[in-house]
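Lab meeting minutes (informal)
Scribe: AK
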Amino acid sequence: MRFASAEAIATTQRLLDYGLGRLREDVVAAQRFGLTAMVRGILEAQLRVRVAYTLGYVYQNGQRLCHTPIEGLEQMLRTGIAPGARISLHSWLTLPSHEIVDPTFWAVFPALSSPGEREARSLFMHPDQMSDRTYHPQWVGDGFVRRIGTLKEYEGW
């Protein structure tokens, strides 16, 4: 069963606009791991289904975007990352139907996102419908970004 019905997309868009709508592009790009985690909670409540927090790279226009070889990921797990270091890794959400919800691609790669994606400030689509972009998972779950220190829990907010 696919979740990307017109109603689900419209509802998701309203929720994303409420949660991310006032954030500048540079803020969304810089905080993509945390914002994706936030959107995950919103989607799970809305769709009543488990949503996978997914990390990996995107392939578009003949290039790998946000690609880190497995060896690099293993190194990050062993040593963590330096404060302020740039991480070449992308995050998105994957539904049980394999549909992709990507709330940050438009901000991380504004020149490569479609006009509709920039306007909606997100992507909600099944990979079968994508003609020029493919998503390549390398890690499922937010444990990786928590362990290397890019996603932290803050108590008392």
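Next up, CB showed the second protein from the same session:
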Amino acid sequence: MTLRNSLSRRHMLRGSAALGAALFTTPGLFAEQLLETPRLTEGPFYPDHLPLDQDNDLIRINDSTTPAVGQITHLTGKILSPSGEPIRNAVIEIWQCDANGVYLHSRDSGSRARSELQDKNFQGFGRFETNAKGEYRFRTIKPVVYPGRPSPHIHFKVLKGDRELLTSQIFIAGHEGQQKDGVFRHLRTPVEKKLVQTEFRPLPNQREQFAAEFDIVIGRTPDDRDQEPRSRRPGGPRTPPPGPPRS
């Protein structure tokens, strides 16, 4: 995403003109750094029972011919280190509510009324392993507003091996609901807020389809986190954290 990248590359080169070109021969000295993607809450609705189909196409479940309801969105991007190096073989997970505002979680879709409202053709959760360029891609729906969260968003988590590297959310750039969204407002600076937003652009000649590009910058590498074992493995049981009933 152009705006994200232009913001990210303003993590400054200090005193370059005065210190002279010789200093730039020192590996790593004054290297241009990308701004790290801010961390945000996982929320209470990471699926407690993962679907059998966990691929990167959330629009269709297994071999079903019936697609999910919603505006199809092609979500792509790269996972990078602060120096801009691609992080290969990282796993990115995404999850979000369906077009009716229902999550794939027993606390949300478990009641009869919510189950009847739930779009059974929406996968609700997906995974993808990055390639050598750090690239990922998903086909999902454009996120929607639901009670308690006035700003549409997609949750994501990045993992490497047995470690969680980052949990955050992707927001629609400039959406009016951000002014009232408690999670979004928790971000402290305008720059942090820009770093979790991206444009959902209509695809030409494709009715009701969008493209969204979102690069993720991981501030700590797996080596940095050697002493921090994960509290769970992907898909393992988890106790929802305290907080508002929907996020």
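CB comment: Residues 2-30, 225-246 have pLDDT under 50 and may be disordered.
No objections, moving on.
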